[in-house]
Design goal:
5-stranded parallel beta sheet; Rossmann fold; about 10% strand; 5 strands; about 220 residues; Arc Repressor Mutant, subunit A
């Protein structure tokens, strides 16, 4: 579900540190297009509040009492998978990134992320997009490979890709920029961009970050 223009983005904040919640609320309430509809201090509370408040986006910490953020994410999305969950945490370890995205989070950010970037991600997620930083996409791919997820049966959408498109998708999943892909494949940057447009259409995704997530989650990249 995406937000119509003119509608405020309803945000639910989930974090067990009151001071951090207050800081987030202060930042978000300064935005004309955002409304904070509630705050939760543990995983069970955010699960219950998500059902009653039906937020567009949840800012989810990982380490919380009662139920952690990953389990809360799974539980919430089982009830309503249109809610966009942005994990906002201090943990940069690969296993946390891996678990959160496997649970269905659409974005994973560190708490030292600049406020402008956080707002960009919130707005993107509210429009149904997934956002993952290139370095995290690369590490996520390695984690899936380590666990043998890349052995999964290719999805029908992947089988529609040409060999050239599959190579480009592999570079995208590794976190490469258009320029880097162009240099590696001896192509013009504009050509790479055109290929990506076709790949996004075939995979039914909106951008390169969604394509990277789709590639590693569905075993599309070897």
């Amino acid at each position: 579900m995406t937000k119509d223009k003119g509608q405020k983005i309803k945000i639910l904040i989930a974090d067990d540190h009151a001071l951090f919640r207050e800081g987030l609320r202060s930042l978000l309430e300064d935005q004309r297009d955002i409304e904070v509809v509630g705050e939760a201090e543990d995983g069970l509370q955010v699960e219950r509040m998500a059902q009653t408040l039906q937020p567009d986006v949840i800012l989810m910490d990982i380490n919380m009492p009662v139920i952690d953020g990953v389990e809360a994410t799974r539980a919430i999305l089982r009830q309503n998978d249109s809610i966009g969950i942005v994990v906002l945490t201090m943990h940069r370890q690969d296993e946390y990134v891996f678990d959160a995205l496997r649970a269905g989070a659409r974005a994973y950010l560190l708490k030292d992320t600049r406020s402008r970037r956080l707002l960009e991600v919130i707005r993107a997620v509210s429009q149904g997009q997934s956002v993952i930083e290139p370095d995290m996409a690369s590490r996520l791919l390695k984690e899936f490979r380590r666990l043998g997820q890349a052995e999964a049966k290719p999805q029908p959408a992947y089988q529609k890709l040409t060999e050239q498109e599959r190579r480009i998708l592999s570079y995208v999943a590794e976190g490469a920029s258009n320029k880097e892909i162009a240099e590696a494949m001896s192509l013009a940057e504009r050509t790479v961009k055109n290929y990506l447009t076709v790949i996004f259409q075939k995979l039914q995704v909106n951008n390169r970050t969604e394509a990277a997530i789709r590639a590693v989650k569905d075993g599309l990249v070897r």
